Amino acid sequence: MQTHAKQVVALINQLPKKEELKFLEKQPGNKKIISETNQVFISVINGLRSLVGDVQTNSTTIPFKQIEETLDQFLENAAIQYDKMNKLSLAPKQPQIQKTNQLKPKDIYGFADVIQLNKLPFIPVLKYKHYAQTELDQKIIEAQNNPYQFFEKYSIDEFSHPYYEEIMRLTPQDFVIDVPQKINRYRDLEPPIMINNPDHLGELILKIQQEVDQNGFSEIAVDLEHNHQISYLGITCLIQLSTRTQDYIIDPFPLWKQIGDMLSVVFTNPKIIKVFHGADNDVQWLQRDFGLYIVNLFDTFHASKELQLMQNSFQFLLSEYCKKSTDKTYQTADWTQRPLSDEMIKYAQIDTHYLLYIYDRMRQDLKKLNKPNENINNIPNYYIETVLKRSKETALKIYKKPLQDQDQSLQTILNKQDRRMDAKSFDLMVKLLELREELGIKYDQNPRYFLPNPFLFKIVESKPTTIQELKSQLGGDKNIHEIVKENLWQFLKVLLEFDEKIPTVDIIQEEQQNTTQIQIEEIQSNLQVEPLKIVQVSVNIKKFQNKNKSIIEHLQQNENVELLKSQFYCESPFKLLNVFHDGLGSQIFQSMKEQSQQQKQQIEEQQQQKIEKINTADFIQLPKLEETNRDQQKDLDIRLNNTLQNQHGTKILKRHQKIEQQKTQKSNISNRFQIS
Ligand code: AMP
Ligand code: ZN
Ligand code: MN
To answer: What is the CB < 6 Å shell around ligand 1?
Structure first.
């Protein structure tokens, strides 16, 4: 189906354009054929339009613009349907469209300044070590004080774990190993204590400390809720903490800059066991957001592994040991929202409420694994100690920012999916990933959400060469995340720069030279327009001339041959419109605007002497990037379109002269001239 669609587009490209049509009509016998073809064409187009739900009154002239639009829409729908039908070809799930201007917790609560939203490696955020056995690395402090200078001086991409020694030196504690014969059943759920100010957090810490003072140790269960959608690095949204007697829910947002130093009194105290389930992520989030490290971790995930349970999820442990279940849908809920609903709070509470009971039961079961006459390596508590060893490994995990090295990142993705890629596609994919990452940092959004990997794979496979094709590959206009939409031209730029041989690149180059480059050159000779770089494709002009010659000869000589010849240089203003809409035009427009008004006027005057009529005022009124008003855009479409058409004749001549003069080797053939 997609091949067919490509063939249709190729055929459309071969159709004669307006001026040629006029010329052809003059040839004897042609008029009737053309008129009949027109009728067929119009009915086909109307048929297509009714398919895409855009039925309008019949027209007697060929509605080029509508044809273009209709076909685009039609092909886009077809591509989407094709993807749906063919589940093997990845039909990536579209991300939930999230408004990028939505206020984030860092802005609302004023902690944006401590978020390391840059390309530098992550710098640990702790300023002071409680329960320290070794000093805090001076390099960390140096980096905290002058990040950019620091990384110019040292080529470090990861700091050592600040609590490495404390964690490594820790030996299994009696209060972990010695499980009471009779353990208390879990308590029934009661509303948790909500903590959202430093005083209440201080009281909680004091309470835990008092228990340590009384019993020589304490036990707490901890879990986090997190959001990785609305920001580049991700954000901890909730810290749940349960003691033997009470559940606490800590809202980190209003406490952001204080939590680290306060909670580290508990989290690095080796006399307090911290029970987590599957702490791999939590350990890293705590480091990233609060500079918190865990000394003396017991991870029930590792316990479930040692016990070789059927499953290792928290849900499974909850049903096995407590005969309770929880609603998984909250796992993916938006935990940044405030106030949190009672249901969400309850869900969060459950994640730690039963965990100390599960910890007791699991330690019992682990003890039972050690049969009296079967002491592995003479270690009486082999299984519990193994869990503690694995938990140490988890606690020693070091947070790293999302991979800066996209080569490596891509290799990881490919390995995970057991997928292969040829070297060229790999390079292109890396370039696209790099661009996506940059946008992620720029907008502080998760790149994997605003442009999921499967879309990038799709683009690499299909190598779209126009904005329309690109849009269709991304799931159609309505489905594209606004960040991607605002930067489509950047993606197209990467694609076009990468693959210089695709014929439609030539079309864009053609259009570019005809309308923008030449105009700009003439208006402002020294104007630098960055995006135009994308079309620096060298083309063989000889080949082009030869082809034209044969066409011209075929048509037999005619006094209009020169005119006709010149027209072959210029094509497809409609496609150009698309390019303009999605960024290039606006870029050019911006650059032009920045030039002094004087200079413009001066050159415009020269311009008017040279060329009869180029309506520059119309030309530079291109739609701006931010413009979303559809009607306005439509209006601009028509105006720009008209302007381009009005300019046609003059422009073509101008360009023709230029080429003759310069005798450069720079031109090309749009693919519709590939008829031999
Ligand atoms: P948990 O440790 O299960 O409470 O999960 C902590 C955080 O990890 C959640 O708040 C989610 O942000 C994320 N998370 C957990 N499970 C999933 C999942 N299945 N899909 C996506 N995110 C998840
Ligand atoms: Zn968790
Ligand atoms: Mn949780």
So the answer is: 223-227, 331-332, 335, 351
